[in-house]
Amino acid sequence: MNETPRTAPGKRLRVLAAMSGGVDSAVAAARAAEAGHDVTGVHLALSANPQSFRTGARGCCTVEDSRDARRAADVIGIPFYVWDLAERFREDVVEDFVAEYAAGRTPNPCLRCNEKIKFAALLDKALALGFDAVCTGHYATVVERPDGGRELHRASDAAKDQSYVLGVLDERQLAHAMFPLGDTLTTKDEIRAEAERRGLAVARKPDSHDICFIADGDTQGFLARRLGTAEGDILDEDGNRLGTHSGAYGFTVGQRKGLRIGVPADDGKPRYVLDISPVRNTVTVGPADALDVHALTAIRPRWCGTPPTGPAAYTAQLRAHGDDVPVTAEPVGDELRVSFAEPVRGVAPGQAVVLYDGTRVVGSATIAATIRHVEEKPPVTV
After folding, report:
1. Is the pLDDT of residue 312 over 90?
2. Distance (Å, rounded) from C-alpha 55 to C-alpha 87?
3. d(CA 347, CA 361)
4. In what order do the strands lie in the sheet with 38-45?
5. CB–CB of 338/298 below 8 Å?
6. Is 113 a known active-site residue?
7. Neighbouring residues of 11: CB distance < 8 A, sequence distance ≥ 6
8. Residue 289, annotated ligand binder?
9. Which of 24, 254, 343, 370 could be bridged to 292 by S-S, CB 3.0 to 4.6 A?
């Protein structure tokens, strides 16, 4: 397999455009073709039993999406194929999602899909077939350094930036990644207007904001069907029983709604999920200030370039649409230790912490444990 990036400025590349059937990926493919590249469109069939039509803006990878992608490719004037990656997607994304919830963690399947499907399975197949790059409709920017290496940066429009879900990409993958929408200071309405000017029928198609393989948006119902029901206790911080649940997997740290406790707190204030124990099958709830996290330990770090060698100041993003927070972070063996300048809330094991140096994505890691009091020692990951 040729691993040498062939991405010199002005060079005509062979580009494989991943076309989901939505407006962003269609416009991205059109821009790549307009820039003079030799573009081929591909729709990834990720479901073994795709539905004929989506429900509103939920889900993706339906028969309808495949047809929309094909029609867009015809308008752009590029070849189009459908590749079946359903089994790989089931193993690497869906089963991982279920296993993480069963273990009391809160995963982000979009990061796993980018890591394992779009920029692993798809990219490897593309390179084997002689393509130079994979193009997607993500809002992020790849910058080439003077030495020829690649860096991942935030999109020009911070409101649409999606670099968080791409923080799992390493430098080799970035060398073959193309994000034509990332350096565009345009609103989503302007992207839709561009699609209309190009004659793309997906111009007014609703965006999908949900987990793509849970078309009805009912994550708890999906997990219940996969994991079954298992009644357990909802406890307060002192271990007092406040109520019951039908499955600890139906909760996430920081959750306020849907607790169904029935008994009000002594101070009358809302309570939040503080901890989930799949071993004891319990959910612990408490006041908002008990959610304050001062530090965390993360595992499986992935670096978008050369790994850091010591402690340094960065900003960190803890969820897809979260704010930047100042941190000090240091790789320690196979872990990443992160300390917050000010305590943050709603940090759940299983989520990703993505580090930034300005607009540059340094890398990401999966949160394994949190420290809620400054006097605590760093948690031990097992």
Report:
1. yes
2. 24
3. 20
4. 80-84, 38-45, 14-18, 133-135, 177-178
5. yes
6. yes
7. none
8. no
9. 343
Q: What is the pLDDT of residue 320?
A: 86
Is 24 one of the annotated binding-site residues? Answer: yes
Q: Is 1 annotated as a binding residue?
A: no
pTM of the predicted model, to two decimals?
Answer: 0.88
- pLDDT per position as a tens digit, 180-235: 998 877 778 889 999 999 999 999 988 776 688 887 778 888 999 999 988 999 99
Integer Cα distance of 138 and 28 in angstroms: 9
CB 110 within 8 A of CB 208: no
CA distance 355 to 326: 10
Higher pLDDT: 199 or 381? It is: 199
Can you list the domains of the chain with their CATH numbers? Answer: 14-204 (3.40.50.620), 230-288 (2.30.30.280), 292-371 (2.40.30.10)
pLDDT of residue 374: 52
On the question of pLDDT at 5 being above 50, the answer is no
Q: Which two tokens stand for residue 373?
A: 């009091």
95-153 tens-digit pLDDT: 999 999 999 999 999 999 999 999 999 999 999 999 999 999 999 999 998 988 899 99
Given a contact cutoff of 8 angstroms between Cβ atoms, the answer to whether 138 and 181 are in contact is: yes
> Which entry of 60, 61, 212, 304 is annotated as an active-site residue?
212
Between 17 and 184, residue with greater pLDDT: 17
18 is in an annotated binding site: yes
Contact 113, 238 (CB under 8 A): no
Q: Is 22 annotated as a binding residue?
A: yes
